[in-house]
Amino acid sequence: MATVAMLGTLDTKGAEFQWMRSQLEGLGHRVHLIDAGVAGEPVGACETTRDEVARLAGTSIRELIEDDDRGKALAAMSAGAARAVAELARNGSIDGFLSAGGSGGSSIAAAAMEVLPVGFPKLLVSTMASGDVSPYVGASDVTIMYSVVDIAGINRLSKAVLGNAVAAIAGMAERYADREPEPDERPLVAASMFGVTTPVVEACRTILEDAGYEVLVFHATGAGGRALEGLAAGGFLAGVLDLTTTELADELVGGVLTAGPDRLTAAGSHGIPQVVSLGALDMVNFGARDTVPPRFASRLLYEHNATVTLMRTTAEESAQLGEIVGRKLAAASGPTALVVPGRGVSALDTSGGLFEDPAADEALTSAAVAAVAGSAVEVVQVDAHINDPEFARAAAGTLLRYLTVSEENKNAEN
Q1: Separation between Cα atoms, residue 406 and residue 414, nearest integer Å
Q2: What is the mean pLDDT of residues 281-300?
Q3: Is the pTM of this model over 0.85?
Q4: Closest Cα to residue 151, out of 8, 39, 328, 35?
Q5: Assuming Cys at both sites, which of 181, 227, 228, 253 could form a disulfide with 284, CB separation 3.0 to 4.6 Å?
């Protein structure tokens, strides 16, 4: 028997949540229902009332009703719900999480799911799931299901969709409740990779795994970078091999795969050993060719596939990117290296390659090296392409050196 936390606004979706509750209990599982509604009277019983959720956010339902500010109410109930769910998970009281709602309910659920660890079952049924779901999924392993119809009553169609959601979370929660402890206790290293830097990351992964580390590879598509930053901030990582910093180019120029302004900061601010390079900073990412903004029509574009178009960064943009990378690394509090490839930063940036641009590469590397001058950042210059084996050996070897010293320091402290 597993226990599933359900979070919903019982003033507007009470009947639907009580139906899902009955279905889960019919499958032999327990339910801990959390009410995040504000305006109307809640329908049915729950384990954590809306008054308790509001108190966890430092306010009260009465105050939220009197203020009559929907935005403020959503923010408060999101904060309170996240604290309620975090406490249940911390105590081992729940094995899964299920929510359903429209834009408001989905935003409250997203805040709650964000506090749950990777691997913990979390499922959201949302009217918003057929569009951009990044605000609800973030960098977590959320399973999201489109409701098809509005969550407004139990009818033939909603019963089918919500029934599937109940069955899915029941199976996931049951498996989670019966999970065996993870025997692999190897230290974790995060690495960033793109298709155009796959060879170097794969080579580094082999070297690090042979040395006794478990390597988590993140695809540098925005969400991947945010996930890497989140794990670093959460204290899960022994080291970071951030060879593919391409998301910074999308953030600067306006591409579609930005990881936000805080990319390349978490490892440094938490003192985690990191080795960083300039992988794929020769490109900005867009969708299909016809989605590229008109202002870039005259730029060098490459159709990677039907849904991905790459644009070569200019020398001016490259200089800005180098300065951004160097400035962020110079602020790091832990062991940090900038490993600079002398012969190209991606599979397209090769001798004779479509994105070959020596002036742009020189602007990128010179600005990065200049920005770390005078800091504690170690600069490792490698006269090779980023995907060459000698570059992989230099990058992985530098990180292993840092990790060895870090481990020796921890042992000395103990």
Answers
A1: 13
A2: 96
A3: no
A4: 8
A5: 253
